[in-house]
Design brief:
The protein is α/β, with parallel strands linked by helices and 363 residues long. It has 14 helices and eleven strands. Strands 1, 2, 3, 4, 5, 6, 7, 8 and 9 form a nine-stranded mixed sheet that branches. Strands 10-11 form a two-stranded antiparallel ribbon.
Length: 363
């Protein structure tokens, strides 16, 4: 089946812009988005930025490997600033030695290849590129999660986000995998982050059962690497400082700004909030220094997305989760929760409609 026309993709982008507002996050996937031509990729990225969204290219990365220089072109010609690369043993479609990877550790050389690619693209273009990676989690690879976390924390200069997605029965999922609970996953993440109290820094995306995240600082320790959360929910001073920041600066974004505009905006924010930052920001920095024990730290965020199966969607809790969903896709003029798209047949019906339309055009 042919991909959506450029006009229809742009219509979806406009619908998302209306819902998300300025500087909203847009994921460009389209099955495997990098199978489109370079010109189309550049056009879509530039268009998303022109209407006020921040596009992230979601990809398996194989096209970047086969076409050296493509990533740089998307940055220089399209304005790409964010990319996410899916790497794990559940993925199918690789055609080299990584296709037969039996363990997640077997893929660390591939992860290193992408990390080098990201560093090179930044150096050659002189432009900002923020990189993330996604991992599907099953009972078969959950024991490997600590090692994956340690690898990414050790390469926090290249990647700044790691997203885990426990497998769910959503129609396209192979039978027999079983389930991974939130607590099972985060206990392994905490082990890899060398921080048993990691979830004291947890936040949520939409509903608490849908998306969890911990923003922190990746640091080198005597016994390896670790992640220190940017705030702790059991520290009242941290929570007062966080609430004060959100009250004063919530919704502020620099991601579509030039360096000059970002500098001017930063100066304006500092001027307006000098008193607050002096009273609460300096003590906060002192607490963070005490927790990390070093000034050599890099920002890093770990996320988990927990999708629902058909039974969960149909439950009262599922209805509540759908009502506050922040992960939606435009289908037939409506912004639908991704869980509904995955598990209630919306994707298949959408593709069937596309196929029917193409057949009528061909006739």
């Amino acid at each position: 089946m042919r991909p959506l026309s450029m006009g229809k993709v742009k219509a979806q982008i406009r619908a998302l812009r209306h819902w998300l507002g300025p500087a909203g996050n847009l994921q460009l996937t389209d099955g495997e988005i990098t199978l489109r031509s370079s010109a189309q990729l550049v056009e879509l990225i530039a268009y998303a930025r022109s209407v006020g969204l921040v596009p992230m290219v979601m990809t398996h990365g194989e096209t970047f490997r086969r076409r050296p220089g493509l990533l740089e072109r998307l940055m220089t010609d399209g304005g790409l600033t964010e990319v996410c690369i899916h790497i794990d043993t559940t993925m199918r479609g690789r055609h080299d030695r990584y296709a037969d990877a039996a363990t997640e550790e077997d893929l660390n050389e591939l992860r290193a290849e992408f990390a080098a690619m990201i560093r090179t693209a930044r150096r050659r273009t002189g432009l900002r590129l923020e990189a993330a990676s996604t991992v599907t989690v099953t009972p078969l690879n959950i024991m490997s999660i600590p090692g994956i976390v340690r690898w990414f924390l050790s390469n926090a200069d290249a990647f700044k986000m790691l997203s885990f997605q426990p497998i769910a029965a959503v129609g396209r999922t192979a039978a027999g995998f079983g389930k991974v609970s939130t607590d099972q996953l985060w206990s392994r993440i905490a082990e890899g982050a060398n921080n048993p109290s990691l979830r004291q820094g947890e936040g949520w995306l939409g509903h608490p059962s849908c998306g969890c995240f911990v923003q922190g600082l990746a640091i080198r320790q005597r016994d390896g690497v670790g992640l220190v959360p940017l705030y702790r929910r059991d520290d009242a001073d941290d929570m007062r400082f966080l609430q004060g920041l959100l009250d004063r600066m919530g919704g502020l974004s620099f991601r579509l700004d030039s360096r000059r505009r970002a500098a001017r905006k930063t100066a304006h924010v500092l001027k307006r909030n000098t008193g607050f930052l002096l009273r609460h920001g300096i003590p906060y920095l002192g607490r963070m220094l005490k927790r990390t024990g070093t000034l050599h730290a890099r920002y890093f965020c770990i996320v988990s997305h927990h999708f629902m199966d058909q039974a969960e969607i149909a439950s009262p809790a599922g209805s509540e989760r759908r009502s506050v969903c922040v992960f939606r896709v435009p289908i037939n003029g409506r912004l639908e929760p991704m869980c509904a798209v995955n598990a209630q047949g919306m994707r298949e019906r959408f593709y069937a409609t596309m196929a029917t339309t193409e057949s009528k055009k061909a006739a």
